[in-house]
Design a protein that fits this description.
mainly beta; 3% helix; 48% strand
């Protein structure tokens, strides 16, 4: 006879258990669960309409589960901090849940959600923050997946302000996102899977990023040994590559304006296209491999490497490696 048992929690206050339903888990043919048995996943409903601090309390606890899914309803007070944990935070079916940091207070934490040495998945959540506060910051080898996360994060004075920060060997995956700004630092990695649009991306400090689908980027800036690969019909309106940074487009992808300087590298592969205009400073590498470039004006940069293999430039095909892009 199969039995349903309530999974026990470590350090979960009685008040939180009383106000939030914990889904029972089926044990199968086992007749009992040991007090210290760790389950694969635990599901909790978090009702912030009754207690706005319920979410911040929930993420501070330790659970006898490898992963904890929190389904939120109502407006949950932030900021929240997640340390050495594995959480999935998603909205309820009615999309009533959100995270809000009050605009009338000052906070030492500089983001609405701080993730340190943890795994986090955010899905269908809006993050409401005051001016100059970021939405999410990842630190210390954290891993996060963002799926349709919206935010009003902005700065009225700082044009370099970024809504999401991925740093310190952390990794982030984005899908179903629009109009967001993301900074990647300290040997970190970001990946854009599908349905991301009008993104602003900055990659520094030996970090890397990749667009694997037909995503659109308003701007991408790469510097300090950073690297970005846009492929499979990805589109970059403005691409900036500085200080030993590198960027490549591949498989029918597109780049618009390109600015390069400081021993930087750009390449287009497999029927990709560059629209221009172009601004090149210093010694750069610019390569076209079975790809097209429009609005190209020959440059006089003998210390730069500007080459193409079967490149089509301004409507003219240059067979083999005959295109050099230099002024005669």
């Amino acid at each position: 006879m199969k039995t349903n048992r309530l999974i026990k929690l470590v350090l979960l206050p009685l008040g939180l258990m009383a106000s939030h339903h914990v889904f029972a888990h089926e044990v199968g043919n086992n007749n009992s669960i040991h007090d210290n048995e760790i389950i694969k996943r635990l599901d909790l409903n978090i009702d912030c309409s009754e207690d706005p601090t319920a979410l911040s309390q929930a993420v501070e606890k330790a659970y006898l589960a490898k992963s904890v899914q929190l389904t939120v309803s109502g407006v949950c007070n932030g900021p929240i901090s997640i340390e050495q944990s594995h959480f999935e935070i998603k909205n309820d079916e009615g999309r009533t849940g959100s995270i809000r940091v009050r605009h009338t207070q000052e906070y030492t934490q500089k983001s609405a959600v701080l993730v340190e040495a943890s795994n986090l998945k955010l899905k269908n959540i809006n993050i409401d923050v005051p001016n100059d506060m970021a939405a999410v910051e990842l630190r210390a080898n954290s891993l996060a997946k963002f799926d349709h996360v919206t935010t009003n994060a902005k700065s009225a004075e700082d044009a370099s302000f970024l809504q999401f920060s991925v740093t310190d060997n952390s990794t982030a995956y984005f899908k179903n996102m629009s109009g967001n700004s993301i900074g990647v630092y300290g040997s970190s990695y970001v990946e854009f899977n599908k349905h991301t649009d009008q993104m602003r991306l900055e990659i520094y400090d030996t970090s890397a990023g990749q667009s694997t689908e037909s995503n659109h980027f308003k701007s991408v800036q790469v510097a300090g040994n950073g690297y970005f690969l846009a492929e499979n019909k990805s589109n970059i309106s403005q691409l900036m590559i500085w200080s030993k940074g590198a960027a490549e487009i591949n498989n029918k992808s597109r780049a618009g304006e390109i600015m390069m300087g400081g021993q930087s590298h750009f390449a287009a592969y497999k029927e990709s296209m560059v629209a221009g205009p172009y601004s090149l400073w210093g010694n750069v590498v610019f390569e076209l491999e079975h790809s097209k470039a429009y609005n190209w004006k020959a440059v006089n940069k003998p210390l730069s490497i500007i080459i193409g293999n079967n490149a089509n430039v301004n409507g003219k095909l240059y067979p083999g490696w005959s295109w050099t892009g230099q002024a005669n």
